[in-house]
Write a structure and sequence with these properties.
The chain has 225 residues and is mainly alpha-helical. The model has no long low-confidence stretch (mean pLDDT 85). It has a single domain, classed as Fumarate Reductase Cytochrome B subunit. The protein has nine helices and two strands. Helices cover 68% and strands 4% of the residues.
């Protein structure tokens, strides 16, 4: 009988995995509450008591989770660039500069080639996609803070109002800011199912990588010896 041995490599640190799932939960929650704020399809039963504040309640939760997403995102960026545990992720930049790796990855996705050996935690397509998504999160956060500052004029809202007023002017007013915030949400709506599908596909086609690494943190490669 022929036996195969595998080497276990740390793909994602505990902090990276925790922040990934926290961001995922925040994004799901913000999408749901954001669509309600744009179109409040549920209204409380009208009565004489001061209890009809469902819209205000959902808006408050949207804001709380929005600030949580800002904090998680900033911490994630810090870990990516400065944490020793994210070294495997930063190695991906070496593969991005190699056309041969790009071609091999595209062939693998088209089912006409094998997945190439890669240095980092991501392949070049994944890294570029994740950078774009990270930039999109920053757009969501900046436009969200701009909208927040124009509703609350004291406390934090008053403090950041002068900072984000130029953003409002540059984007053409609050109406344009809201539209950008809304359209960016639809990008997430499209991206999330594609991301889940491709991560699952990668894990099934190439066991030891993909979705399971973000859950367990380890990648298993065949031992050439």
């Amino acid at each position: 009988m022929k036996t195969e041995t595998f080497k276990r490599h740390v793909e994602f640190s505990v902090a990276t995995r925790i922040l990934h799932w926290l961001r995922a939960l925040c994004i799901f929650f913000l999408i749901a509450t954001g669509f309600y704020l744009g179109y409040p399809f549920i209204i409380p039963v009208q009565n004489a008591e001061p209890t009809g504040f469902l819209y205000a309640l959902i808006r408050s939760w949207h804001q709380i989770i929005g600030f949580a997403l800002i904090g998680v995102t900033l911490f994630r960026v810090y870990i990516f660039f400065f944490s020793k545990g994210a070294k495997q992720e930063r190695l991906t930049f070496d593969d991005v500069l190699k056309p041969s790796v790009w071609i091999a990855i595209i062939k693998a996705y088209l089912l006409i080639g094998h997945h190439p050996h890669q240095k980092g935690a991501y392949n070049p397509i994944q890294l570029v996609t994740y950078i774009m998504i990270m930039l999109l999160i920053f757009v969501m956060c900046i436009t969200g803070l701009t909208l927040y500052a124009n509703v609350y004029h004291e406390g934090l809202g008053g403090f950041i109002g002068g900072i984000f007023k130029p953003v409002e002017v540059m984007l053409g007013g609050l109406s344009s800011v809201r539209l950008i915030h809304h359209y960016a949400t639809w990008v997430f709506v499209i991206f999330v199912p594609l991301h889940i599908y491709l991560a699952t596909w990668n894990a099934v086609r190439y066991p030891g990588g993909g979705l399971d690494t973000m859950a367990g943190g380890y990648r298993y490669d065949k031992d050439s010896h």
